[in-house]
Amino acid sequence: MQQSELNKLQQQQQQKQQKQNNAEMQKKQAAMEEQRKAILSQILSTEARERLSRIALVRPEHARQIENFILQSGIRQQISEQQLIDFVEEFTKQTKKETTVKIQRKHWSDDSDEDFY
């Protein structure tokens, strides 16, 4: 019985430690996100922020990638709406996937075009 009680106590301690670690990670992520927003609000003009927020409404992952692109580019001057549009166009060109549509028609052995004449 003592061994099972000891195992239970160890499991409880591990769970408590995991919860603390998760809470700390969430706090760190929240702090990083706040710092990210602060930097972007300093860099982007109000019009550019509005445009980026509209992009985020439609495609959040695309907006996040654009934000990363802006932050990693190292620009520390004010970015206007037109400059943001240029960034978006450049980013879209880099990440654009070529899509092609290929139509395959099924050929049936009993189909005949002569039936229509």
TrEMBL record:
Domain of life according to the entry: Eukaryota
Region described as Disordered: 1-33
Listed Low complexity bias regions: 1-24
A GO term, aspect molecular function: DNA binding
InterPro entries: PDCD5-like (IPR002836), PDCD5-like_sf (IPR036883)
Record's GO cellular component terms: cytosol
Listed Pfam families: dsDNA_bind (PF01984)
Signal peptide: none
Family note: Belongs to the PDCD5 family.
Protein name, entry field: Programmed cell death protein
Species assigned in the record: Anaeramoeba ignava
